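Lab notebook page, bench 4
Experiment: in silico fold of construct C2
Operator: M.H.
Input chain length: 188 residues
Purpose: comparison with the prior construct
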Amino acid sequence: MQTIESSVLRVAVSEKGARLVNLIALNSQIDYLKDVDAQKALEVIFRGAEQEENLADILPWTVVDKGDSRVSLALIDDNSSYKKFPFHFEAVLTYALEGNVIGIKFYLKNNSHKDMPFSVKFVIPVFSGWKVNSNANEIVLSKDKTNLTIASANFTLTAESDQISAAYDAAALASDSDDDLRLTLALN
């Protein structure tokens, strides 16, 4: 488990699946990924096109950079993943805190000599009692006097009763190229 902190937030990230498992406001010590009954996590899903298996769950993540307010984890193909998803790739997921904002960057590099079809999705749990308001490129969760704003220019954001999905679906990354996908969570 990797813990990072800003002057406002403390988050914990599990190397298993690169999940954000705690989102704690330092002034109140409230963990926004926990309710009375359950501790939930922000889930990362990375798949090849038309693939069922989540590569983010079956391959090991390795911490490649760590500071007080940021952590980067890398995911690299191996022989067993190549048999199921025949591409060579590197993915680096970075969580960086600045004040009340968590910046999430998913960097993907296609090291193959052919286009790589893929999808990336972040699933953010929503506990009961939170009001959901959707705008063009953001979703705001509200409860009492607290707002959690999820925003992205890259991901399609959708709200359901118990989760927010940030999805980048049916994409193809050209051979020997890379891309940065960004998502922010702001707690006010």
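Observations: The CA atoms of residues 33 and 40 lie 5 Å apart. The first strand starts at residue 2 and ends at 5.
Next step: discuss at group meeting.
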